[in-house]
Design brief:
Strand order of the largest sheet: 3-2-1-4-5-6
Bound molecules: shikimate-3-phosphate, phosphoenolpyruvate
Function: Catalyzes the transfer of the enolpyruvyl moiety of phosphoenolpyruvate (PEP) to the 5-hydroxyl of shikimate-3-phosphate (S3P) to produce enolpyruvyl shikimate-3-phosphate and inorganic phosphate.
Number of strands: 32
Helix content: 25-40%
Strand content: 15-25%
Largest sheet: 6 strands, parallel
Subunit structure: Monomer.
Pathway: Amino-acid biosynthesis; L-tyrosine biosynthesis; (4-hydroxyphenyl)pyruvate from prephenate (NAD(+) route): step 1/1; Metabolic intermediate biosynthesis; chorismate biosynthesis; chorismate from D-erythrose 4-phosphate and phosphoenolpyruvate: step 6/7
Family: Belongs to the EPSP synthase family. Belongs to the prephenate/arogenate dehydrogenase family.
Shape: globular
Distance between the termini: 43 Å
CATH architecture of the largest domain: Alpha-beta prism
Subcellular location: Cytoplasm
């Protein structure tokens, strides 16, 4: 029979649903609600359910499997997975050639195998599916149209699946309220064994064990909320779950073995009163649970979609006032975890940046067996494992958006006895890693990168490193720190020469942990083989975050802002030097030294800025602050010229081009050069739509630009502001920027 023409709004004319239970019934209700399907007919082994389905208005009619499948352009199998085979045999003679055939079972390998056996292959319109939604209730009477709202549906198309069929089925599920993900069949079954099947098994088993205890009535009577939450799923349909375990046997057995081993480890720890192991496992699990949704983007239901899109909407004008402290320094926060973890004894950190970049570092050390308590209001307590105490992580270490984490880890991991793999998000995956991999290889490390020296980095363990002298071709604190960290493990001396001064937090903190760093002009050296001793670290407020407010208060009329406890390490103060050269009114007071780092309070008032030729020696000292300095230059009188800053092109985005594009979008013309930019100040910032390319510093810079705009500015892709500056929007609003963050 030829395919009937499908109307624009209608994706399927006639849907046959085989199995009218909770999932099948809910899918039909949701599909009808969406208006994307025509008539719906059902077949089910229970005549009562079918009659009820018609009575409740869920279906339009019913019949035998062959009757309902005839003429249907979508056939959905929604029976317990072990009944699938029989259903397929029965529907085969009546299935229309153009019909899309799908299912809703929890295991996908078994469905594909059954289709292959019965049809002699999987046609292009067979698309296995699995809605991740359910309830412990059964039957069509429990069906509801909202069951899939905000839930995920996994489709597992095969290599020769018909694109149009896939799009229509995807459209239908989206119309049912679900987010559709695709993955391959085997991966689906592995992921579900771990995240769904194992928890159900544990719930069934635990309730059964307790029900068998002599005092079961007493136990259940006193069962607290935790027990109820934990065992809710033990009320699920036994037949359905019996089927799932038998059809996903191998994947389930693998994950049960893994879990049993870990449970045995906990048992041993309790038996031997090994509190350290208990604390380590529990705090790692608690942290993983707290960062669950974030972690999902790196694992489990793999997709970038789990991260919500955030955009900024900024109304023009405003002035900046207040007395604030911005979050902790990102560079120092990363290093506090790294050195604290490798030290002997406990390290207490205050002022830790609870941003995604430094949290990625923290999580990675937990994954390597380090017990870390917190962060709790910036307080972190690290139970150091000693220089040789790291354990092999179970999988790749996911470092999100953080270049610092990836480059410093590369040095540290090159010297470990175990293999490791470092991965990151799309932005990090584009950044050059050859700059660390090459000198590490010269020290004896074995590191594989993707094409062009990009992540992921696959690092071979068990290599003995030898110290080298390295002349860095670019001024990079990340490369320097990477090599010094590798040097802690290398034979002899590792020394790094920098072409211009770069941030020296690694050297200062190593010294604070009692590790001698030799400094000779532009060369820093360490000799491998010594140890680190844990202590206290007070992380100052991040001058790179303060920079947004330094520029904001400078360019907005009527501003007067105090910034507290700002890190004033001379390798970081380029932004203040440059702004002062431009005529900014910044007073530095209360200067003090805390834990080896200079700190001060700053007062900044509005000023008439003038354009300057930025001295090249200031570039490494203000490397992360240029996006917002471009905004200052736009608001200054006269021309600002930046040279010698090609490094900006390999940050989270190409910060020269992306800023120039963003400025053009708000009415400001600039001239881009290979290593910098020329900005003629005094142009009107008209407002407009800016693409931040997911770069936190670009997004925040245009928030600052709104203070001098004449119209609304919208900035897209701003979720990554959380990598370095959690709470930016609230603080910006509090100090006088008219900013709204919109999700979705
Ligand atoms: O060592 C560090 O903590 C950092 C060094 C700089 O990178 P480069 O070393 O690539 O210049 C900087 O841009 C980054 O935000 C943090
Ligand atoms: C370049 C930056 O960070 P990273 O290199 O750590 O991603 C930054 O924060 O501006």
């Amino acid at each position: 029979m030829p395919a009937e023409p499908v109307s624009r709004s209608m994706l399927f004319q006639r849907v046959a649903i085989i199995g009218l239970g909770l999932i099948g019934g809910s899918m039909v209700l949701a599909a009808k609600r969406s208006g994307l399907v025509g008539s719906v007919v059902a077949a089910d082994s229970s005549p009562d359910e079918l009659a009820l389905g018609v009575e409740l208005g869920v279906i339009d009619g019913y019949g035998s499997i062959s009757e309902v499948v005839k003429g249907a352009d979508l056939v959905v199998i929604a029976v317990p997975v072990r009944a699938t085979r029989v259903v397929l045999e029965q529907l085969r003679p009546s299935l229309e050639e153009h019909a899309v055939l799908t299912d809703v079972g929890s295991t996908k390998g078994s469905f594909v195998a059954a289709v292959r056996d019965i049809f002699g292959g999987c046609g292009p319109r067979v698309i296995p599916g699995h809605p991740i939604a359910g309830s412990e209730k059964n039957g069509v009477s429990a069906a509801k149209a909202t069951l899939f709202d905000d839930h995920k549906v996994i489709l597992t198309p095969l290599p020769d699946t018909d694109e149009d069929a896939l799009q229509r089925l995807t459209g239908l599920w989206e119309g049912c309220g679900a987010t559709v993900l695709t993955m391959d069949v085997a991966r689906h079954d592995e992921v579900l064994a771990a995240t769904s099947h194992l928890p159900h098994l544990i719930a069934f088993s635990l309730v059964d064990t307790l029900a068998g205890e002599d005092q079961n009535m007493e136990i259940f009577r006193y069962a607290a909320g935790g027990f109820r939450d934990f065992t809710r799923i033990a009320a699920s349909d036994p037949v359905m779950w019996h089927d799932i375990f038998l059809t996903n046997r191998e994947a389930v057995l693998r994950v049960i073995d893994h879990f049993t081993e870990d449970l045995e480890q906990l048992r041993r720890a309790i038996d031997t009163e090994d509190g350290a192991t208990l604390l380590r496992v529990f705090s790692r699990a608690r942290a993983a649970r707290n960062h669950f949704s974030k972690m999902l983007s790196g694992q489990a239901y793999v997709t970038d979609m789990s991260q919500k899109a955030v955009s900024f909407r900024l109304q023009p004008g405003g002035s900046i006032t207040g007395d604030i402290r911005v979050p902790g320094d990102k560079s120092i926060s990363h290093r506090s975890i790294m050195l604290g973890a490798l030290a002997d004894g406990v390290t207490e950190v205050d002022g830790f940046l609870e941003g995604e970049d430094s949290l990625a570092t923290l999580q990675a050390f937990r994954d390597m067996g380090v017990t870390i308590e917190g962060p709790d209001n910036g307080h972190v307590r690290i139970h150091g494992v000693g220089i040789d105490g790291l354990q092999a992580p179970r999988g790749p270490l996911y470092l999100g958006n953080s270049g610092t984490a990836m480059r410093l880890f590369a040095g540290l991991l090159a010297a470990q006895p175990f293999d490791s793999e470092l991965t990151g998000d799309a932005s990090l995956s584009r950044r050059p890693m050859g700059r660390v991999a090459d000198p590490l290889r010269a020290m004896g490390a074995v590191i594989d990168t993707a094409e062009g020296g990009r992540p992921p980095l696959k690092i071979r363990g068990g290599r003995k490193l030898s110290g080298i002298h390295y002349d860095m071709p670019v001024a990079s604190a990340q490369v320097k720190s990477c090599l010094l960290l590798a040097g802690l493990y290398a034979d002899g001396m590792t020394s790094v020469h920098e072409p211009a001064p770069t941030r020296d937090h690694t050297e200062r903190m190593l010294a604070g942990f009692g590790y001698h760093v030799h400094r000779d002009g532009a060369t820093a050296s360490v000799v491998g083989g010594a140890r680190l001793t844990g202590g206290r670290i007070d992380v100052p407020a991040d001058i790179s975050s303060a920079a947004f407010y330094l520029v904001a208060a400078s360019i907005a009329e009527g501003s007067d802002l105090t910034l507290r406890h700002v890190g004033m390490n001379p390798t970081r103060t380029g932004v203040i030097n440059i702004l002062k050269m431009m005529g900014a009114d910044i007073t530095v007071f209360n200067q003090r030294e805390i834990g080896g780092e200079p700190v001060a309070d700053l007062q900044v008032r509005s000023a008439v800025l003038r354009g300057i030729d930025i001295p090249e020696d200031q570039v490494p000292l203000a490397i992360d602050e240029f996006p917002v300095l471009f905004v200052a230059a736009t608001c200054a009188r006269g021309r600002t010229i930046l040279r010698g800053a090609e490094e900006l092109r390999v940050k989270e985005s190409d910060r020269i081009q992306v800023m120039a594009d963003g400025l053009r979008a708000v009415g400001v013309e600039t001239t881009v050069t290979p290593d910098g930019i020329v900005i003629d100040g005094g142009q009107t910032i008209t407002g407009g739509d800016v693409d931040s390319h997911g770069d936190h510093r670009i997004a925040m810079s245009f928030a600052v630009a709104s203070l001098r705009a004449t119209g609304e500015i919208r900035v897209n892709d701003c979720a990554n502001v959380a990598t370095s500056f959690p709470g930016f929007v609230e603080l910006a609003r509090q100090t006088g920027i008219f900013i709204e963050a919109e999700e979705g």
